[in-house]
Fold these 2 entries.
Entry 1:
Amino acid sequence: MLKSGVYTQLAPILFGNGTSQQAGKKAKDLNMTKVLLVTDKGVLDTGHAEKVVNVLKAEGIDVVMWDGVETDCPDYTVAAAAAIGREKAVDSIIGVGGGSVLDTAKAIAAVIPNGDGVLQEIVLYLTGQKRYAVQPLPLMLIPTTAGTGSESTFVSVVSSETMQCKIGLPCPPNYGIVDPELTVGSPAFITAFAGMDAFSHASEALTEVKNTPHSDLLAYEAIRLISKWLPIAVKDINNLEARENLALASNFAGIAFNESGVHMGHSTAHALGHMYHIPHGICCALVTPPIIEFSAKAYPEKMKKIGEIMGLSFSPETPENIGKIVGNAVRVLCKEIGIPSLKEQGLTKEQVLAAKPMIYQEPLCMTFDGTITEQDVITLLETLYDDYQ
Ligand SMILES: [Fe+2]
């Protein structure tokens, strides 16, 4: 019997090469008159943010540029940007950049009208115990990497100083523009990290408790596109065809995990990212093989389908063997695209195992469609460290 569930598409997505040049017209449609354009210095150097500013100004829209985004969206930078937005009396937000930029833009849209107190009570907003007193500002997101899928997800992952963890603040965007040309020329290592972030969104969405036939469809297609095109984009950073396919995959994986969800893999990535500042995409790449091995116990058919999409075959077709073969294939993919191990990044096994309490306590960890024990988390961390050197 097919699983019942809610099929969702959060916001309209304008997809295609050159579409970021329509940002001005779309912003006008959304009644934006004075925009806080959120970006970082790296994106500023590419000229992408400036091009968006130009098309906004051509439509008579005022722009306040803020390029102070830091990696992993710390809550204090959200508060600092919100203060500027309030002082300048902006009425809308546009984020142009990678995952940290888009998540920061999302959080700013909620915090400007509702105050910095939101950042102290993220759990209450995330769990629905508290609702925003004022509607967040209109928000448009324009990704410059193919990985986060943030333009299609309702939360902003914020690094909370108060709670000493990464946590999701609900801030759904109103419009997304996915222009693959903005990702052309992105450095190979950023391309690799971002692509594996999207892969992990897809593979975890398949086994999260809210998975549906719709989210599965998008997740499988994202995995097919990433498996084929990520090594090509990493080898040739100017390959437009590879960039188009990866941009699509990132968005599909974003829709899939916004509808379904992510689970223990992302809890692990959040903990390692918060404790040791390992980039999110690297953590996601490294957790994916052991998560696939673990998931094969409850969902052997789905993990087998991932393998078939990657051109693998299985004999014997036992859950354990399926998990092992697919997990190892993902490790080979990670090696091919240059994902460094945790050891190579200077972490000891003891440091990695020390993340267990933070992982197990994160509510996200328990959204796997099956049972997760403390021993499962320990096994995941040991495998993560030992089986990818
Ligand atoms: Fe992610």
Note: Residues 197, 201, 266, 280, 284 surround fe (ii) ion (CB under 6 Å).
Entry 2:
Amino acid sequence: MPLFFKISHLFLLLFVSTLSSSSSPFGYNHPLDSLTLSELTQVKTIVKKSYLLINVTFHYVGLNEPEKPLVLSWISINHPTKNPPREAIVITQIDQKTHEIIVDLSSDSILSDKIYDGHGYPMLTSQEQNVAEKLPFTYQPFISSIEKRGLRLKEVVCQSSTVGWYGEKRKSNRMIKLIYYYLDGMVNLYMRPIEGITIVVGLDQMKIASYLDRLMVPVPKADGTDYIEPKPRARSNLQLDGKRIMQPDGPTFTLDGNAVRWADWKFHVDYDMRAGIIISLASIFDDDKGEFRSVLYRGFISEVFVPYMDLSEDWYDRTFFDAGEFGFGLSAVELQASKECPENAKFLDGYSIYQDGTPGKMPNVICIFEHYAGDIMWRHTELAIPGEVIEKVKPAVSLVVRMVSTVGNYDYITDYEFKQSGSIKVTASLTGIMEMKAVKYTNSDQINQDVYGTLVAENTIAVNHDHFLTYHIDLDVDGRNNSFLKAKQKTERFKDKKMSPRKSYWTVVKQTMKTESEGRTQLGLEPAELWFVNAEKKTKV
Ligand SMILES: [Cu+2]
């Protein structure tokens, strides 16, 4: 569901922030820049040095964000001589234990190394998933199960599936289940699930921990569902793909390192293995005041939770955390100009790590472009002044920062759209393919129990599920002291005919939330406006 952060100019006031864009002697430009290639290499060396001859698996490396006051003071000084500390946070597995290590890059040392013993495990590495997915192909019971179904092993593909936990007793700590699909000459594997075989892999031992061939269900035929390039339309010359956006004078935004300037906006954009896009220090220039006023300190996707609503043995624990388990940034794809970003886009690379700690480049994972779809931002035609026709129109041009993360069957398009009005529109669009379940039914008339989804083709259920995207949003609307305010419609009724011949009207009741729990809001049909304001700053009115 798209979230809107409505930032009213009325409430925006005084805040000066000057983003230094000159390159620094520190190898990076800005304290919120993600770790550079050489810094990631340095992290690997430092951690490896303190665990000589011990196997360390790297699951996440990212910037250990400096304290906010340090960053704010850094940007408020034009030519800072001292930078906030440059630190990395490293999540590793060492001897089957999860370590949270803070590395200080300036002193080349480890500041802290804590064993995490709470619930949950680190993000999976791509490498361990790949190794696990090969295990069944040399495992005799699995080979027999495939033969028993009359399928050919070389047409079977396997995917790692993380498992939700409902308090069951478990032998293995870090574990995944494997799910299988049957290609049989097609590429749309999700349409042909092989149902009924449960394989649990213990990741620390990298061994099959349990195997169960539970039931036999026909593999859906999935005829005509492959996603091939559409044939040219015979009926007409209609060309719907690849419309061009021309900017003969080039884009009007600038990208200096990771600092973006466009129209009245300036902000910092970066990549993180887990979160994907991170937007920082967004502020907008106020012409009347002649200064930048802050809007957002830091914003990113903190989790994407996808629970399936199926109670059966192979499905009940499909409750994916697409960011925390698979990495929203790690799952980012290389964006193609003219297809998923217009040709006037500029691209940014990211750096992630392999499980041995070696950094690898993720080319063109973020694109930035000016967006104009022929829409109107503001307009008015004034005819009331005798002898004059006044017409003013402002086209709706915005700046979009985009990433696409492909997590298994789903492709998430995540956008941050900066508007001239001072608002940032956050959008998540989902495309890709549904996760299907194979069943015995070929017609909905045969179904006499809850099948937890919709029969979309013969032997194929699209299973009910949600995608919950949670955003970490640290708004600094006109400074740090922000309040959350709800404005709701309230109907007033009266019977006093002397007051008005009318019987009712609606008015707006504003309420400032005192606690976080009070601020919990169920978005729905009830009309409500949600505001983040700096209550300490007053305008003239
Ligand atoms: Cu879905």
Note: DSSP finds four helices and 27 strands in the chain.
